Structures are given as structure tokens and as C-alpha cells.
């Protein structure tokens, strides 16, 4: 429910919907690369003008929208920002309140070892660890669900030591992918997918064999 999300954030980040409004957080799993992105690129290669993953996600979610012709469906994508440069929604907070993935933050560590350093939080999924992404929020403004019960996300990094290790790896060694394996995972990115996401966005078009792309 939108109210769960708004309840944990400052008013500047609130979503402008009634508290009981139904919302879904959309995640992409490791198999998205082979099952969705590659077929999309092969089929739509001449129409891809911005980030291929973003376009692929919006392509598939437009089909979801079509499945509900009698409903108003609002979609907010993870990359969308407001005129003040703030994100339109805080993806990790949304995933946490929806019970999809646990958002580990500095406040989850009792004996904080970082002093004045800025420490960013990170979501971990009980099945995919850090090998997933939060892509969008689907909102159904006309559907109110006052009786929907909130499910807590699974706390899969439960020890103090592991949480410190996770936040250390995410903040200071994120490029080596190690934080994603903080727990045992069922599936991770393929080497091809890792190479794609490790490539600077401007060079990904070349990697996919696409013409030019947006600058």
C-alpha cells in the first residue's frame, strides 16, 4: 500500500496517492538479460535510442498496462527524476515495505565502525542476493486495499558481522560484485551480463552492436 511507503519517508518523498492505494514493485531477476533484453534488442534494434535496459523494461510494462484496459495504471520507472533532481520514488524503500527485498542501512548496525563516512544502504533479496534490480513501481490509483496485510521482507543478512561486511563491500568495493554474494544465491548474472553492466553506459550500444544511441 502507498501508505506503507509514505509512512517511513519525509513528506518531500511521499507519493501523491491515498494511503490504501495498491502498488506493485517490479524487480528484474538475473534471467532478464537472456529472456527479455537480448530478444528485445534483436527485435527492436532500430528503435533503441536510449538505455536499452530502460527501453526493454518500459516495453514489457506497456504490455502489463494493456492487460488492465478498464483500470488506470500509473508506472514510475527507477530512473525517473523530478525537476528538483530527486528520484520520483525511492526504489529500495519501496522494495523493503513491499516485502520484496530487505533494505540494509547503517541504522541496522549497532556498533557503527564508519565514523563520519557517508554509508549508503543496499537491498538484498533472499533468493538472488544482490543479483537483481528494482525497475519500476506500478500504481493502481482506483484500487483501494484497506485490508491488505503487510509482509516484512526476509532478513537474510541477520548477523552484525555480515551486515558490516555487506555495507563495506557495497560502499567501498562495489565494482568487484562481492556484495551481491553476501548470502548463498540461487542464480547470478552470467559473465556476459556482468560484462554488459560493467561497461560504461555510453559504450553499451557498441557492445550490443547497435547504431549510435543517445549521447
Automatic annotation (TrEMBL):
BP term (GO), one: cobalamin metabolic process
Residues forming coiled coils: none
Cofactor: FAD; FMN
Subcellular locations according to the entry: Cytoplasm
GO annotation, cellular component aspect: cytoplasm
Keywords per UniProt: Cobalamin, Cobalt, Cytoplasm, FAD, Flavoprotein, FMN, NADP, Oxidoreductase
EC number(s) per entry: 1.16.1.6, 2.5.1.151
Catalytic activity, as annotated: 2 cob(II)alamin-[cyanocobalamin reductase] + 2 hydrogen cyanide + NADP(+) = 2 cyanocob(III)alamin + 2 apo-[cyanocobalamin reductase] + NADPH + H(+); apo-[alkylcobalamin reductase] + methylcob(III)alamin + glutathione = S-methyl glutathione + cob(I)alamin-[alkylcobalamin reductase] + H(+); apo-[alkylcobalamin reductase] + an R-cob(III)alamin + glutathione = cob(I)alamin-[alkylcobalamin reductase] + an S-substituted glutathione + H(+); apo-[alkylcobalamin reductase] + adenosylcob(III)alamin + glutathione = S-adenosylglutathione + cob(I)alamin-[alkylcobalamin reductase] + H(+)
One Pfam family of this chain: MMACHC
Molecular function (Gene Ontology), one example: demethylase activity
Keyword NADP: yes
Main localization (coarse): cytoplasm
UniProt record similarity statement: Belongs to the MMACHC family.
Database matches in PANTHER family: CYANOCOBALAMIN REDUCTASE _ ALKYLCOBALAMIN DEALKYLASE, METHYLMALONIC ACIDURIA AND HOMOCYSTINURIA TYPE C PROTEIN
Protein name stated in the entry: Cyanocobalamin reductase / alkylcobalamin dealkylase
Protein source organism: Crypturellus undulatus
Name of the gene: Mmachc
